[in-house]
Structure formats: C-alpha cells, structure tokens
Design brief:
The structure holds 2 protein chains of 2 kinds. Chain A has no helices and 11 strands. In chain A, the strands form 2 sheets. In chain A, strands 2, 4, 5, 9, 10 and 11 form a 6-stranded mixed β-sheet that branches. Chain A has a 5-stranded antiparallel β-sheet with strand order 1-3-8-7-6, with no helix packed on it. Chain A is globular. By secondary structure, chain B is an all-beta fold. Chain B is globular. Chain B is built from no helices and 11 strands. In chain B, 36% of the residues are buried. The N and C termini of chain B lie far apart (37 Å). The chains are: A mainly beta, B mainly beta. At the A-B interface, strand 4, strand 5, strand 9 and strand 10 of A face strand 5 and strand 10 of B.
C-alpha cells in the first residue's frame, strides 16, 4: 500500500514558467513532509520541508504548500530553470514511525 | 564537513552470493537509514539504526540485514542474492531519528547476474 503517492511520473515545463509537483498521502499520522531532488548517479538531496502546523513554507524559488484536509502537498518552483531538471521525491514521516516514507518520484524536465 | 560516504559505488554479483555494503555517515550523525531504489518501486525503506540499535525495519525479507558500529558507521548485508535485488542502495544519515532532514550518500549500484 503506497502511503505517499506521486501520481505524475514526469512533468515537462518551459524555462521561466512555474513547475508544480504534487504529492498525496494516506496516513493521517504523518506530520512532517520533505522534498528531495535527485540527479542521475547522485543520492537525493534535501530541498525543502514543512511541518503539519504550517500550510506554506518558502525558500527562494521553492515553495511547498500543505493541505492537511486533502492530505495533499505540492512543490512550486518559480521561475523554473534547466538546472532544476531532476527527479523530485516527496517524503513523509510522523508520530509512531520516524522513518521517511517516499513517493516514487516525478521526473521534471525544464526545457530552455 | 565530509558528506555521507558509501562504498563500493558499483558492484556486480552472481545469484546466490552475498554482499556487504558500507556507509559512513556525516560526522556527528548517529542515525543511519538504508533505502533501496528501483525504477518500479521508487525509494523503499530498508532499516534504520541509531546508537547501534535497529529502530525501524521495512518490509524486506530476512536476507536483508544490517548493523551499526560504535562510530556510527553502518553496513548492510544481503545474503543469497536474487536477480530482483539489483538496485541502487542508498544510505542516509541524520543527527537523530525523527522529524529531521536526512542526508544521502551517492549510493551503491548493485547488479545481480
């Protein structure tokens, strides 16, 4: 049972436009969410996180929105740059389970 | 500060063999987690160690095991390798378990033939 779902395996965006990556979760015990970015042949790198006490967290071009009632979060990248092309993983952890549960990832391609 | 170091980077083994992968966490980090990444399943949690104790274990068969040493370095072992064990094995370290960001190594690419 996939507790963290990234339903879009891939996304293609034009440089300068907004990229929106979506993530849904099913476990109501999750209270901390993270986004990781992964380039080929490298390990995932932490991008941004959000606690369930917030509904928005912003860091430069990256903003994560959390909708707890819908069990949905999204990562907005604006403006998108070609160097943002990578696989983005959504992850969650929570009370009763400290491990990170990852989605399957969304491959973002930003076209120049 | 050095990052998470995983060795070896690449490994080719035959079915039935066993393999040991190593992970050195960031200095000062005491929590080490292991993940398996495959194209079909994404990143799947294997186990987590903190202070030499396994705190969490994912849904993997007993062929997958691990341990952590007093210096926080960790090893994972897979016995009786199967073709389906071919994957990228990632290690992540964090200061402590719980709601904290994890830093990943570059992974070990295991190919079972």
């Amino acid at each position: 049972d996939q507790q963290v779902k990234q339903n879009s395996p891939s996304l293609s965006v034009q440089e300068g436009r907004i990229s929106i990556l979506n993530c849904d979760y099913t476990n109501s015990m999750f209270d901390y969410f993270l986004w990781y970015k992964k380039y080929p042949a490298e390990g995932p790198t932490f991008l941004i996180s959000i606690s369930s006490i917030k509904d928005k967290n912003e860091d430069g071009r990256f903003t994560v929105f959390l909708n707890k009632s819908a069990k949905h979060l999204s990562l907005h990248i604006v403006p998108s740059q070609p160097g943002d092309s990578a696989v983005y993983f959504c992850a969650a952890s929570g009370r009763g389970s400290e491990k990170l549960v990852f989605g399957k990832g969304t491959k973002l391609t930003v076209n120049p | 500060k050095a990052g998470v170091t995983q060795t070896p980077r690449y490994l080719i083994k035959t079915r039935g063999q066993q393999v040991t992968l190593s992970c050195s966490p960031i200095s000062g980090h005491r929590s080490v987690s292991w993940y398996q990444q495959t194209p079909g399943q994404g990143l799947q949690f294997l186990f987590e160690y903190f202070s030499e104790t396994q705190r969490n274990k994912g849904n993997f068969p007993g062929r997958f095991s691990g341990r952590q040493f007093s210096n926080s370095r960790s090893e994972m072992n897979v016995s009786t390798l199967e073709l389906g064990d071919s994957a990228l094995y990632l290690c992540a370290s964090s200061l402590q378990p719980g709601n904290t960001e994890a830093f990943f190594g570059q992974g070990t690419r295991l190919t079972v033939v």
